[in-house]
Amino acid sequence: MKVVLIKDFEGYGTIGTVINVKDGFARNYLIPRGIALPATESNLRHVQSILSQKQRKLQKEKEKALALAKKLEGLVLEIKHQVGEKGKLYGSVTSTEIAKALAEKGFEIDRKKIILAKPIRDVGIHTVSIRLHPEVEVQIKVDVQPQE
C-alpha cells in the first residue's frame, strides 16, 4: 500500500515522502497514529499545502532572526557580579543572568538560546553565542565587572 507521511518517521522518511508499506502496517499502525495517509491525489495535495505553509513560516522566522541578529551584532553587555580573590567570581555568570541583562536592553531572548562554551568565572570580556534560529547565530560580548 502506498502512503504519504504527514510526520517525520525515523527509518522511513520525512513529511511528504510517499512510501510503499505492507497493508497491515499502514492500516493498523501508520494511519491510526496520524503518521501517514493513503497516497490519494487529494491527500498528496493536502500534504503539499502543509509543506508550503511550513516553509513560509520557517522563512518568516529566519527573517526575524536575521533582523534581530543585526541589532545584536557588536553589543556589549555589562554584568556586575561578586568577586573574590584574584578576580575570580563567586559562582559563575549564567545564561539566565545574560538573558536578564538582554531584557534590560530591550531584547527578549530565551535563556535556552544562549550558548556558553564554558562557564564564565572570571572578570573581563567574554564572547557568548546566541542561536536565534537553526541557521542564525550571533556573537555578543559580555563584560563581567566586580560588584562594589
Q: Can I get a quick summary?
A:
With about 150 residues, the protein is of the alpha+beta class. It has helices at about 25-30, 40-70, 95-105, and strands at about 1-5, 20, 35-40, 75-80, 90-95, 115, 120, 125-135, 135-145.
User: Could you spell the SSE succession in H and E letters?
Assistant: EEHEHEEHEEEE
Write the CATH homologous superfamily of the largest domain: Ribosomal protein L9, C-terminal domain
Count of runs of 4 or more consecutive helical residues: 3
**Structural class designation:** alpha+beta
Q: Average pLDDT, to the nearest integer?
A: 91
- Overall 3D shape: elongated
Which architecture of the largest domain would the CATH scheme give at its second level?
Answer: Roll
What is the radius of gyration computed over CA atoms, rounded to a whole number of angstroms?
24 Å
Number of strand segments: 9
Q: Please name the CATH topology of the largest domain.
A: Ribosomal Protein L9, domain 2
Largest sheet: 4 strands, mixed
Helix content: 25-40%
Total individual domains: 2
Gap between N and C termini: 72 Å
- What's the level 1 CATH class of the largest domain? Alpha Beta
Estimated share of beta-strand residues: 25-35%
| Unreliably modeled segments | none
Report strand order across the widest sheet.
Answer: 4-9-8-6
